[in-house]
Design brief:
With 252 residues, the chain is an alpha/beta fold. The protein has two domains: 89 residues, no CATH class; 130 residues, Rossmann fold (3-Layer(aba) Sandwich), CATH 3.40.50. The strands form two sheets. It has a five-stranded parallel beta sheet, with helices on both faces. Strands 2-3 form a two-stranded antiparallel sheet. Helix 8 links the parallel strand 6 and strand 7. Helix 4 runs parallel beside helix 9 and helix 7 packs parallel to helix 8.
């Protein structure tokens, strides 16, 4: 399956697209099969509501974020700090250069903190993984931001051809010499990422960051649907699907 087709399929499976498709199908058949149609519509609405409230989104993402503990010993030995890209914001409409997305910026900041503490090369990994985006690679946008934040050009290495984590893991060996790396990515994305880099022969020290789950009390306010909760639930569902697919491919 081609890269673009894989992306399209994932977008359609992950909420809210899959729920909208479910409800649309229910509306289409409700005249001919009233019970089945109403059941599909109700299932879509209920699922959309549940995925849009804090308790559900926190539970979904929290299960992923607690699988790999945070890096507390920042004096570990490694050959490089590897930061995985997380998207680019195209700001050309405002006359500005592309910038790392909010998730990517969180990863970059964590990488820079580790770089300043350990004085290790900072490797920025990521090409263009968005079929609709034609601006610049994740790594190039992170490089510009890192330079603005005071990182010296000689301390930066780039891998800007890969379109996803697996491709980045396969091509990293062409960028660095050592095999022991500190891997920086979103906490919910760490289990799959670390597995892919280990599969390529790297010794991985995980440094998860950009946590999405928050500690909060469940109140009536928690039951109000919010866009951020739906975003978190969607990210979690996408990762569960990708993780299952990766395990299936790994087992074959």
């Amino acid at each position: 399956m081609s890269f673009v087709l894989t992306k399209i399929v994932l977008y359609l499976i992950v909420p809210p697209a899959s729920l909208l498709i479910l409800m649309a199908f229910g509306f289409l058949i409700v005249r001919f099969r009233p019970f089945s149609g109403r059941l599909l519509i109700a299932a879509g609405f209920v699922s959309l509501y549940l995925l849009s409230i804090n308790p559900v989104s926190d539970a979904l993402i929290g299960s992923l974020e607690t699988r790999i503990p945070p890096l507390k010993d920042e004096k570990v030995r490694a050959d490089a700090i590897v930061v995985l890209g997380g998207g680019v914001s195209d700001l050309s409409w405002a006359g500005l250069r592309p910038e790392p997305s909010s998730p990517a910026l969180g990863r970059l900041v964590k990488g820079i903190v580790l770089h300043r503490s350990l004085r290790l090369p900072l490797v920025l990994v990521g090409g263009n993984g968005d079929p609709s985006r034609v601006v610049t690679a994740d790594a190039n946008a992170m490089e510009a931001a890192a330079l603005d934040l005071g990182v010296r050009p000689k301390d930066l290495l780039l891998e800007n051809k890969s379109r996803n984590t697996l491709e980045g893991a396969k091509t990293l060996g062409e960028v660095i010499r050592g095999r022991r790396i500190i891997l920086v990515t979103a906490a919910y994305h760490m289990e799959r990422s670390a597995g892919m880099f280990r599969k390529q022969g790297f010794e991985v020290i995980p440094a998860p960051t950009a946590y999405l789950k928050e500690k909060r009390n469940i109140t009536w306010y928690s039951l109000i649907p919010q866009a951020r909760s739906l975003y978190v639930s969607s990210a979690a569902c996408s990762e569960y699907i990708s993780l299952a697919f990766y395990r299936l491919i790994k087992a074959l």
